[in-house]
């Protein structure tokens, strides 16, 4: 799986950074792409990638500030206009109000979609597990911003061990129903009396990945809980070292606070986004350098950058 950043700027677009959106590409896992936030111009950014809008099956919104949702009406409308592709339904998860925003925008602009949108709204009282499929579970918790805002923890279920068919053949197991039994963990005895222990022919299950994607937030314990043992933590870094006070008053974090969260949570990797246009490229290198003094495996992402998880 990969994360592709579509917009990594804070508040307003700049020439190099668009407003917030990222795509979690789960093509090998479930042949779907999940979008997190959809700032204005997200559809234009998608045109510069290989992402097919029809593959986007779910959109998760962190909060209702404009730089995170104003791209929705445009994206949803364009998604309807791709010829020669089947219309597929879409799920939108987000704070209460997202349904009214989307439906109002579509209604007043006379937009009619040839596919269905299923809304899943939540508020302070309905957080926790919001989605479970056979491959993934998604949890939300409330963060600490100037309006209700959440972070998402996407947990892939453990991947089953695979059967070593070559080794079984070499052991003289005839191809057929016995393979199925062994795959299900059952020990078997062959006609010649040979005992086959299933565990010797199945690789150990691989732990699923954990991806934590946070909305705008002050430093808070909720972020740490969401990021426990995460393979990747995507955390905002609207401000830099020394600006902790102003960050707090505006409902945001500094790079140092993001690094503290990653360290406390035992995350493996920290990706900083929501970068202010005030920062020039040398400031961005400094953001990384300073954060690395607390959490070493840190990187400041750019628009269109793709990161393998
Ligand atoms: Zn915000």
TrEMBL record:
It catalyses: Endonucleolytic cleavage of RNA, removing extra 3' nucleotides from tRNA precursor, generating 3' termini of tRNAs. A 3'-hydroxy group is left at the tRNA terminus and a 5'-phosphoryl group is left at the trailer molecule. Zn(2+) 1 binds at residues 63, 65, 145, 216. Its cofactor is Zn(2+). It is an enzyme of class 3 (hydrolase). Keywords: Endonuclease, Hydrolase, Metal-binding, Nuclease, tRNA processing, Zinc. It comes from the Bacteria. The keyword Metal-binding applies. GO terms for molecular function: 3'-tRNA processing endoribonuclease activity; identical protein binding; zinc ion binding. CDD domains: RNaseZ_ZiPD-like_MBL-fold (cd07717). InterPro entries: RibonucZ/Hydroxyglut_hydro, RNase_Z/BN. Its EC number is 3.1.26.11. Zn(2+) 2 binds at residues 67-68, 216, 274. Binds 2 Zn(2+) ions. The active site is at 67 (proton acceptor). Zinc phosphodiesterase, which displays some tRNA 3'-processing endonuclease activity. Probably involved in tRNA maturation, by removing a 3'-trailer from precursor tRNA. NCBIfam families: PRK00055.1-3, RNase_Z. HAMAP family: RNase_Z_BN. Homodimer. PANTHER family: ZINC PHOSPHODIESTERASE ELAC PROTEIN 1. Belongs to the RNase Z family. This is Ribonuclease Z.
């Amino acid at each position: 799986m990969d994360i592709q950043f579509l917009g990594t700027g804070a508040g307003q677009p700049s020439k190099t950074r668009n407003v917030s959106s990222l795509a979690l590409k789960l093509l090998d896992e479930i042949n779907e792409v999940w979008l997190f936030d959809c700032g204005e111009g997200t559809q234009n950014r998608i045109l510069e990638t290989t992402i097919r809008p029809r593959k986007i099956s779910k959109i998760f919104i962190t909060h209702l500030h404009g730089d995170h949702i104003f791209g929705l009406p445009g994206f949803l409308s364009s998604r309807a206009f791709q010829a020669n592709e089947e219309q597929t339904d879409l799920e939108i998860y987000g704070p209460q109000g997202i349904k009214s925003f989307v439906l109002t925008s579509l209604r007043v602009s006379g937009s009619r979609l040839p596919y269905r949108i299923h809304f899943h709204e939540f508020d302070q009282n309905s957080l926790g597990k919001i989605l479970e499929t056979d491959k993934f579970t998604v949890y939300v918790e409330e963060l600490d911003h100037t309006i209700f805002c959440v972070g998402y923890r996407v947990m892939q279920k453990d991947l089953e061990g695979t059967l070593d068919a070559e080794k079984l053949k070499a052991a003289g197991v005839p191809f057929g129903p016995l393979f199925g039994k062994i795959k299900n963990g059952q020990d078997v005895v062959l006609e010649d009396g040979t005992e086959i222990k299933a565990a010797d022919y199945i690789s150990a299950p691989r732990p699923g990945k954990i991806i934590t994607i946070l909305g705008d937030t002050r430093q808070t314990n909720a972020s740490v809980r969401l990021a426990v043992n995460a393979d990747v933590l995507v955390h905002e870094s609207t401000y830099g070292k020394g600006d902790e006070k102003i960050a707090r008053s505006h409902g945001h974090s500094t790079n140092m606070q993001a690094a503290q969260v990653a360290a406390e949570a035992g995350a493996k990797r920290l990706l900083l986004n929501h970068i202010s246009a005030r920062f020039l490229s040398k400031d961005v290198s400094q953001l990384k350098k300073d954060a690395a003094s607390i959490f070493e495996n840190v990187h400041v992402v750019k628009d269109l950058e793709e990161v393998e998880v």
